[in-house]
Design a protein that fits this description.
The chain is mainly alpha-helical and about 170 residues long. The chain has three helices and two strands.
Length: about 170
Amino acid sequence: MSEQQSRQGWIIGIIVVIIVAAAAYWLWTGDEKKKEIPATKIIEEPETAPEPETLAQPEEQPPVPKPLEPAPAEKPAEEPGRKPPPPLNNSDKAAYQDLMGLAPDNALSRWLVPSEVIRKWVAAINAGSRGTLIDKPRPLKSIRGPILVTGSSAEGYQLSPSNYRR
């Protein structure tokens, strides 16, 4: 027998011994676990005394009163110096003036569309909540002309300086 064959014999022998030892351990501990299971106890229900055969008369209950109708809601007291908002169809002028008051010297006037102010902002916010942009009822004025770019680089496109004149 060569030296290599004798090594293989030893390795196979060790593997067989390990498998036999593992099987013996598994069988030996499995029997102990089966012995540890407690026996179940049978619990009998206690006997109850038979009920008398006479039926009890139900007690008369007073009639249930009808629920009262809720009182009409009172209008909240208006704060002094504050007037209610105008109806939607007449709100363009007031909403536009409020928006212009946000920036000095009416700087927002060149960016905002003055007609149907509230409707357009509601449409834009609603579309934005769905992850889309709207084109037709846009509350902002569109810039005329195409956006010009100069070549692309690893960072992306770069805006052309001629865009500043638009």
